[in-house]
Amino acid sequence: MTQPQRKRSVLAADWRKDFPVLQQSVDGQPLVYLDTAASAQQPATVIETVARYHREDHANVHRGIHTLSHRATDAYEGARDKIREFINAANRTEIVLTSGTTESINLVAQSFCRPRIGPGDKILITHLEHHSNIVPWQLVSEQTGADLVVAPIDDRGQLELESLYALMTNDVFMLAIGHVSNALGTINPVKDIVARARRQGIPVLIDGAQGVPHMRIDVQNLDCDFYAFSGHKMFGPTGTGVLYGRESLLEEMPPYQGGGDMILEVSFDGTIYNDLPYKFEAGTPNISGVIGLGAAIDYLQSIGMQNIADYERELHDYMVSQLGEVDGIRFIGTATDKASVQSFLLDDIHSHDLGTILDHQGVAIRTGHHCAMPVMTRFGISGTSRASLALYNNSDDVDRLIDALFKAKQVFK
């Protein structure tokens, strides 16, 4: 182990202590949580920030003149500023607060695409996508008569880039692509893909739900038009999310929903909509959740995204090497560039059965299709077992996973 690796390992032991949920047992076994790709655990600072808001500052934002409303608004809008800095957006008006990646993608589909496309136009996605980056585009296609086109992947779970580029024809109105596959961990070369799309005048949305928690994201450097992500994937509360949108595009887009906070003036003769980003934020928001998301960003910034990426890469390499020593393991997704996710099958054991046996040993993994049924269809399977890592995992967690798999093999022998 190199000196930097040793240092990161020591730091990771302290990071782990920040997560109260990990200090428990399941079925008499210390909890090993390997399901971060579904939802990351929250550090104590996020939990305490949300609780403090509810104890001391709970009030509606933007609308009150009393002290509690001012404090709530300051904390809520302060979180927006933290998000802007975290992904290096040019302006806070480019940060639209949503309920998650799913709502963010639907917003773009309905507000940016639907009014502008029709028969003869195409929306381009890939075979790697999560359902949330498939179904909204299917809906728009059905609503407008546009065609949905899907770029293929190879046997390693990587995009066939030349095929993708060949599909970027003049009639493609939109490209929607995941940064990191939630099912396979494949990291797509989105900067290069965006550059190719921009040369052909194709707007790009990136589903960043699995990218933001694991690497430094700079939307200006990526040069994408939209970037969507969720708070609960990045150690924040559920029901929170972000849509980054290029300001010039957001200005042109009509509101996605109507109601309070997205208006300046209402009469029965018509409505004057609010300025960016508020014209896309109808109704009372998830105030405590957004404030908690701001605390999650503070936490990630205090550790450093590069430190997290380096540590997780080392731990992922260790997990893959150890899994490879288990007889009967079949890896699903072997891309050259991967995030901290590994899907696999073990002998002929159904993934749900395997997950249940591991749970009895205190090891939490995800089983099934991972909301990526087309990926499973591509590999001719119904689902996989998936172990996903985060900064709070360590080599002991991996060793516990391996031991649990050996015990599962004994049960089904």
Describe this structure in words.
The protein has helices at residues 3-17, 44-57, 67-87, 101-113, 135-144, 161-167, 190-199, 219-222, 247-252, 287-303, 305-323, 351-359, 373-378, 395-411; strands at residues 25-26, 29-30, 32-33, 95-98, 122-126, 147-151, 172-178, 204-207, 226-230, 241-245, 263-267, 270-273, 329-332, 341-346, 363-364, 366-368, 384-388. It has two domains: 3-30 and 304-411, Aspartate Aminotransferase, domain 1 (Alpha-Beta Complex), CATH 3.90.1150; 47-302, 3-Layer(aba) Sandwich (Aspartate Aminotransferase, domain 2). The two termini are 37 Å apart. Helices cover 41% and strands 17% of the residues. The strands form five sheets. The protein has a seven-stranded mixed sheet, with helices on both faces. Strands 13-14-17-16 form a four-stranded antiparallel sheet, with helices on one face. The protein has a two-stranded antiparallel sheet with strand order 1-2.
In short:
With about 425 residues, the protein is α/β, with parallel strands linked by helices. The protein has helices spanning about 5-15, 45-55, 65-85, 100-115, 135-145, 160-165, 190-200, 220, 245-250, 285-305, 305-325, 350-360, 375-380, 395-410, and strands at about 25, 30, 30-35, 95-100, 120-125, 145-150, 170-180, 205, 225-230, 240-245, 265, 270-275, 330, 340-345, 365, 365-370, 385-390.
Q: Which terms summarize this structure?
A:
413 residues; Aspartate Aminotransferase, domain 2; 17 strands; 41% helix; Aspartate Aminotransferase, domain 1; globular; 2 domains
